[in-house]
Amino acid sequence: MFERIVVAIDGSAVSSKTLPVAVEVAKRFGSLVTLVHVREHARYEGSDVDLGPEIAPEDLMEQAVARFTEQAVEALSEIRRVTPGETPEQIVRVADEAHADLIIMGTRGLSELRSMLLGGVANKVVQQAHCPVLLVR
User: Where are the domains of the chain?
Assistant: First the structure.
């Protein structure tokens, strides 16, 4: 049913709750998992400013892939670098490129206040995705 799953993580507390759910779904269906971390960057006074969490994106993805590997689930990782506001489109793009049957992500991430004001990444992914989206609280 779900041969290919995309799991979006951002390093937030809700995102960490997403991983155990994704592992269980992937184990149940024997799915190939593509983990995606979309890192927002902005230009400020000539410098590139990383708007993501303190953890380096490579370290975040390495830890996430290890959680799947420990449970004998094949997992790939993808890091996308975007300008602020492009995160939902990138998650959907990765799902399309991976031919995903399901996207799993948290309901709220690092930009909780901004999400409430602008409609939220999860809401935009649900609206734009061409496959089912499982939201984890």
Answer: 4-136
